[in-house]
Amino acid sequence: MTSQTARLNDALLKRFMHGFYGYGNLHAPFWFVGMEEGGGKSFDEIATRLRVWQMRGEKLTEDVMDYHVDIGMPDFFYDKIKLQPTWAKLIRVLLGL
User: Any idea where the domains of the chain sit in the sequence?
Assistant: First the structure.
């Protein structure tokens, strides 16, 4: 089945939309709340994100590094680490407190 004829699992997508808050620890002293994360530029990427979230237990929050490694996007975590623009700014704010 190609991505043009494939469909997402509607029930899984709904659970993700209502049950995934983002990355980190809900008991942490600081939270960074954003509108949405980047990505989702292809059907296959969205399907992979949903499948991995389900495989990892459909948790409310995920470890940002572990999750992105599992979806095949380790770019910000290994080798020549690049600062992700949004996170870099938020981290600088926190370090300045």
Answer: 10-31+38-95
